[in-house]
Protein: tRNA-dihydrouridine synthase
Amino acid sequence: MNYYMAPMEGLTTYIFRNAFHQYYGGIDKYFTPFLCNRHMSSREKNDILPEHNRGMCTIPQILTNKAEDFLSLCQDLSSYGYDTVNLNLGCPSGTVVAKGRGAGFLSCPDELDAFLDEIFSRCPLSISIKTRIGMEQESEWETLLSLYQKYPIAELIIHPRLQKEGYGGTPHLSAYKRAEEMLSCPLCYNGDIISPATQEKTLKTLPGIKTIMLGRGLLKNPLLPALLRQENTDPSTLKSFHDTILDGYLSIMSGDMNTLYKMKDLWTFFGQSFDGAEKYLKAIRKARTVTDYRLAVNAIFRTCRVILPAPSDPW
Ligand SMILES: Cc1cc2nc3c(=O)[nH]c(=O)nc-3n(C[C@H](O)[C@H](O)[C@H](O)COP(=O)(O)O)c2cc1C
Structure:
C-alpha cells in the first residue's frame, strides 16, 4: 500500500512535513496546502522551495478556476524543478465554493471541461486531481467521471463525499468503486482512515485500493502510517517530534503569538491522542507565552498516556 499525506491548510506546512519526514517517514507523497494566487507569496514560496522539501516527494497543490492562473503558477513551479502539480476540486469551504473554486467548480461541468481542456493541452507538467464526488447529489459523479475520462490525469485522488456533506456522514464507497470501473488512471482513496480497523473495513469493500491519502488521522496520531504498515511504533518519539515543529515555527515566525496560533491549531488534532489531557489542553488554548505553552505541553507528555488504536479498534 502507498500512503500519502493529505494537504491541510495551515497545518501540513513544510515545517510539519519536514518534522514528520525526520521522525516517521513512510509517506510516498506529501501534498502541499493549496496555492491560490497567480503569484506566490513569500510564505507560499517557502513552502515549496526545494531546499525546504529535501528527500521528500512533494506535490504542490493549486486551487483556481482560471486556466491562466493555473498555467502561470505551473511555470513558476516548473522553474523550481517540479514535474507534477495537483488541482484542488474538493475544498468545501463556503467562501471558496462561492467563487466557483474547489468543490464549487464541480457544479459547472461545462466550465470545468473547458478549463481542463486548456490546462491539459498547455501545461508542461503532469496534472493530478483531488476531487469530491459532486456538490449536492451522488448522481453528479457520473457526469464528472465521464469528464475525467477525457484527460490524461496523472492520478485521481478521490474523497468520496459531496460538498454539502463537509466532513460529516460516511464516505460513499460505492462512488470510489464506480471510478475504478470507469477510469484507467491511477486512483487514490482519501477519507476517514484513522486506524488499522478503518483501513481493513474500507479495504473489505474496496479491495482494489492501492494508495491511501491520510489527513486528520495522521494529524491526530503521527504514528498512524507505521500502525497501518504494521511496523513498530514508539510513542516516546512524539515529544521530540512536537518540539521540532515548535522550534521550526519559532525560527521562522515573527512574535511568539503567531507560533502559538499554529501550535494550538495542531493540538486540536494531536490532543485527541492523549488520555485525560483535557485540563492541559485547556492550558494550551489559554497560553499567551511560549513559556506557559511549554509548561502545559510538558505536563501532557509527562502525565498522559498516548492512546493508540488496537488493530480491531475503530478509534
Ligand atoms: C483543516 C483542514 C484543512 C484542509 N486543507 C486542505 C487543502 O489545503 N487542500 C485540500 O485538497 N484538502 C484540504 N483538506 C481536506 C483534506 O486534505 C482531506 O481531504 C480530508 O481531511 C479528508 O481526509 P481525512 O478523512 O483523512 O482527514 C483540509 C481538511 C481540513 C480538516
